[in-house]
Each structure stands twice: as C-alpha cells, then as structure tokens.
C-alpha cells in the first residue's frame, strides 16, 4: 500500500481541484458583478436621467453617490455610476451582456464603453470574446 504522505499525485490532484474551483468562482463572480453593474446603470438611466428629469437626476446622483459610497465603498463613486449608465447605453441588451460577461471582465467593458464608434466597439468585444 502506498504511503499517502509520500505519494505526490494526491496532493497535486487536490491542488488542481482547488485551483479549478477558484477559477470558476472568480469567473462566476465577475459575471454576476458585471450584470449587477448593468442593472444599476439601467435603473439609474430609466428612473433618473431620462427626459425632463435630467436636471433633477443630477441632484439625485449626488445623493445616491453619498449613500452608496458610505455603505459600500469607493466602487460606487460618481465616475463609476457614470460608467455603469454608459455601459447600458452602449450595451442595451441584457442577454448580450450576460453572454459577453461570461468571457469579458468588467475592466474590459469599461474599456469598450470608451470606444465611441459602435461598430468598432462591437468588433473589439467580439474579437476579445473569440480570443479567450
């Protein structure tokens, strides 16, 4: 019978299982956060920034930022909320966001929304998605 303490395959197998689980968890967490950011952006865009409420919306954003930063930290700054609204403007279809978020990180989306030309933005999103 093999001595488990000296058999290198068992610890190596367990290490691989742990690393694989961590990787899957990170990908899943990224996809969930990306979808959350999209939903937050959509909610702000729909409820605060549309039509005649734009000036009112600016005031609401300031108050919203204060509350969110106080409760959840700097990740909810005005700049970040603006990125989330722009995210929805650039990627209005939630199903597309869900599909892409399985392959692209939030950082990728932030870079993509900075591309003004929609055709270029879509090209780079698909190219990055294929390269993964």
Automatic annotation (TrEMBL):
Domain YhcG N-terminal: where? 13-131
Q: Which InterPro entries match?
A: PD-DEXK-like_domain, YhcG_N
Signal peptide residues are none
Pfam families of this UniProt entry? DUF1016_N (PF17761)
PANTHER family registered for this protein in UniProt: NUCLEASE YHCG-RELATED (PTHR30547:SF5), UNCHARACTERIZED PROTEIN YHCG-RELATED (PTHR30547)
**Can you say what this protein is called?**
YhcG N-terminal domain-containing protein
Protein species of origin: Oleispira antarctica RB-8
- Upper lineage: Bacteria, Pseudomonadati, Pseudomonadota, Gammaproteobacteria, Oceanospirillales
């Amino acid at each position: 019978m093999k001595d488990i303490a000296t058999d290198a395959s068992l610890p190596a197998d367990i290490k691989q299982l742990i690393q694989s689980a961590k990787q899957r968890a990170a990908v899943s967490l990224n996809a969930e956060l990306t979808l959350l950011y999209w939903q937050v952006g959509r909610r702000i865009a729909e409820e605060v920034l549309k039509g005649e409420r734009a000036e009112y919306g600016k005031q609401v954003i300031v108050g919203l930022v204060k509350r969110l930063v106080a409760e959840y930290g700097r990740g909810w700054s005005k700049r970040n909320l603006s990125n989330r609204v722009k995210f929805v403007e650039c990627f209005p279809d939630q199903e597309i966001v869900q599909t892409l978020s399985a392959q692209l990180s939030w950082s990728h989306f932030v870079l993509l929304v900075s591309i003004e030309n929609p055709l270029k933005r879509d090209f780079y999103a698909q190219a990055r998605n294929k390269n993964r």
